[in-house]
Amino acid sequence: MSMRINQARLTIEELKQLKWILGGILAMLSLWALGSLDLNSSFHLTFGMAAVFAALIRPQTVAAIPPFFWRVAAPAMLLIVLVDFGFGFINFFPPLMRMVMLLLAYRALAPRTRREDLQLVLLCLFGIVVSGALTVSLLFAVQILLFTPIAMALLLVICLLDGRPEERNLPSWKRFSWRQLITRVWLVADIRVLAWVTLLFSFVVIASMALFVSIPRFNLEQAIPFMQLQAEAKSGFSDVVKLGSVSEITEDHSIALRVDAPSMQAIISTPYWRILILDQYHDGEFRLSSQSREFRRQERLRLIPSWDDWKVPHQQRNAQLWTFYFEGGISQYLPLPGAFQSMRFATDQDTVRLPDLHVVGLDVVPQSAVSYQIEDLLWEVRSPASATENQAFFDYSTGVEIKDEDMLRFPLTTLGLNIAQQDRALLTRLNRDLIGESASLSVAEYSQLVTNYLRRNYRYSLTPNGTNQAEDPVVAWITAGDAGHCELFASAFVLLARDAGYPARMVVGFVGGGWNTVEDFFVVRNSNAHAWAEIYDAYTQEWLRVDPTPGASPSNPDLPLPASFEMETGISAWVDSLRMQWYRRIVNFDQQDQVELATSMLDLGNQLLKSLSVKFKEVRTTLIDWLQRPFSRGSFIGGGVLLCLCFAVVYLWRTRFRWLHLLPRMLRRKQGLDPIRKMASRLLHRVQVQMAELELNDPRLGKLRDALKELEAVRFGPAVTMDVAKSVFAKAKQILRKRH
């Protein structure tokens, strides 16, 4: 009597449901990746993700949409795309990616044929790869690893449906249940197929890693110019900074800068990461004057030497390398704490340099993180003024005739107030009260005097008061306010210094940071955003850094604040260390790293061979020693352990059918063929093959027929015990081994 085993399979409708759901998950994954690009596409992204997510949660709503809607949606979407391309013709990459977002949402929701399923897979892959290439984010590795198995599963379902009539209909969702579908998929999943898929996926990952290591390095944005994306700088780090714009950045706790420092001890004082210097003031805002921009140099460089007037002294050079990873979308200007020996980018970059201000930037605000390496750094509170600045200030102080329009030119913009006469009178009166009879104050003494006054009479707060007066907001705060943020303290100092005849300017950037103890690197967050001032010292022809904000630094500006920063630990520090590894090993991976990696792999292989040779010699020596002294205590213990292991292996092998029979129960899967019947099926095949090879008069043919009958009884007949099956299998194997 035969027994028929019903193999569990998904129905055609369940396969269609699974295919549609996998397509929606891929679309969500791709939209998530595209969300990291600065494309001004918040509406497209929000609409696409919300629609696909709602459809995945309750697919019955999509089935209720009439077919007429999908016929109208396609031309309407085409019209939207054409209008978008028309307005963005010059920079057509953002409209292109917005079109991809709309196509992803449409393809994920609308009925699909096999060809359209493959289009959806390619669209999702395109979105993830483009996003990863432009943002070089750690999330790209996560997204591509998630995409691969989901896409493989979708392609498998498409293959299972291959051969069916082409239909552009949505699956039937009337009796759909997530729990029921997941249970059904788990019951029909073949463990062996899953194991092979896992092996194939591992092979793809290993092959991808090998290709990454071996292929030449190139910059995708430079190879494909239209893919260059220009992000918007944070308002506090742009050419125009209004009051409160820097303080708004401090509310963001995300990381802005990572610095691979030589050591924690190399940071000798609290770092001030200068980003931009603003020399012109008007009505509560500082800006980089148009005249100062005339001195900028735009060049395509990979190596930037030290400034001509601000170099690291020869005796202080020790070839220490600092690697900066500056996040995208913050500023086109790069953080620089002081003088350096050289500055190097990973590839050629379109740079903008302001030598008179000691500022380095890029031609656009980068979309992705920018890495650059600096050799040797000086942590000083003073920086030299340029020859242009020194000459202009000297002419101004000696009474050389200067026209009114010259006061609007750099660097005399650092003396301009651009405020009403009554406001100027208030500043003059306050300066007179501060200075008193001291007619010969040095710049440092004057700075300390004003800093002490501001800190004594005003407190730090992100919600300032007193600026809503009719007069200039900074002067109004000085006269009527008592709480302010760093921009107000720095602005008040600059205006008072200019009224007293000292050239002064505002500086924006970051101050301080933290040390990641997991991977040993310095972390600067957007919450470290800060504004301070610089005042010109005519005696030394230098700019002196002054930070009047309470608690930021000593009141004496010539005294640097000792290095003091937080130690970052815990799970957040560990996650950020992964990002740092991503930047170090992936983003910053160049040809030199390729050579070093290949060399290290060869060295590792040689060390592995040597260690295996040593282990083999040790095992051989141990075996010889055991044979020479078999009755020693060590030999007895080693032999006993080896004997127990052999017995355990033999026992597991002899009882393998029992364990294999328990495995489906442990996994709560439907029982298919039990291990005994599977083994009988394999032996049946071997017996049939050998019988086909024999002649009709061969004497072994009778024994093979007997074995065939017994195996068929085990395979198709009633269930037998383990002992009966073992005797049948042993007899069949013995007959199969005797081929002559």
What does this protein look like?
The chain is 51% helix and 14% strand. It is elongated. The strands form 4 sheets. Strands 2, 6, 7, 8, 9, 10, 15, 16 and 19 form a 9-stranded mixed β-sheet that branches. It has a 5-stranded antiparallel β-sheet with strand order 3-14-17-18-11. Strands 1-5-4 form a 3-stranded antiparallel β-sheet, with no helix packed on it. The chain is of the alpha+beta class and 740 residues long. It is built from 24 helices and 19 strands. Helix 6 runs antiparallel to helix 7 and helix 23 packs antiparallel against helix 24. Among the domains are: 12-223, no CATH class; 673-737. Strand 8 and strand 9 (359-362) form a beta hairpin.
Write the layout of secondary structure elements.
Layout: H1 12-34, H2 42-57, H3 60-63, H4 67-87, H5 93-109, H6 114-135, H7 138-161, H8 178-188, H9 191-214, H10 220-223, E1 240-242, H11 245-249, E2 255-260, E3 272-278, E4 280-282, E5 285-287, H12 290-293, E6 297-305, E7 321-326, E8 340-354, E9 359-362, E10 370-377, E11 382-384, H13 387-397, H14 421-435, H15 443-457, E12 459-460, H16 473-480, E13 483-484, H17 486-499, E14 504-511, E15 514-516, E16 521-525, E17 529-537, E18 542-546, E19 566-568, H18 570-587, H19 591-628, H20 633-654, H21 656-666, H22 675-693, H23 700-716, H24 722-737
Parallel strand pairs: 12-13, 15-19
Antiparallel strand pairs: 1-5, 2-7, 2-16, 3-14, 4-5, 6-8, 7-10, 8-9, 8-10, 11-18, 14-17, 15-16, 17-18
